[in-house]
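Input.
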Amino acid sequence: MDATADTIANVETWSGKDRADENFPVGSWLVRRDLRKHVHAFYAFARNADDIADSSELAPDDKLARLDIMEDVLLGRRHTGSPSALRLRRSLDATEVTPKHATELLIAFRQDAVKQRYATLGELYEYCRYSAMPVGRYMLDLHGEHHSTHAPSDALCSALQLLNHLQDCVPDLHKLNRCYLPLQMLNDSGGSVEDLLRPNASRGLRRVFDSILHRVGRMNTFAEELPRRVQDRRLRVETAVIVGLSKRLAVRLERFDPVVGRIALSRPNKVASLLFALRYLV
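Output.
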């Protein structure tokens, strides 16, 4: 660990983003009131770690040192340096949820600190294993759900992560020289990373987008099982909302070009997903 990082009173570098900036609800009013503060604690930890990994000003070694301090505070190896990790540690103690989900997220953020390209789709799926799946599993464990919910949750979280990669493919390259699009897929389609610098998507790049979206479609279809398996009524609705939003965002990314501009969900998309999900209250 970098000696200078060890002396930082607070390693966190909040970007200014919060739950309101996300595509999908985070600890919304749909979640049980007594659990919302714990969801928010998990989100704050993940948000701060992500901001470190995505900083354009910190060197890779500094990012890794800061993430190590966050893990040390989370696991009780130290007590200062990361307020969000300390808050989450207390939350996990209160709820008796394992810290494994949070430490697995840190694996992905450490990877983001040093890795800028993905050779294959398998590498990208492995990244999703640590960057996305732990979030869903944390929510399910917090609500005491059965492990049979994990597989459709993993599918949903992976779909959301892949959609986010497509949404942010241009700013990721501009800001961090990072590209999640698998190089093998780009090469096979006749595209390249440099195509992201064009005014609009090349044919090869569009083929990669469509291939990834096809896989997202299969994930979303399996993810429809999640609200059917969840026992907590409010969480059932929340998961149904997120599945609906994921499907609607995938459609928008099929219709529009994320190279031209970031494709986001509209307010009608969000309202429609909520109304459709309310049937899971019964």
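Residues 169 and 179 are 7 Å apart (CA to CA).
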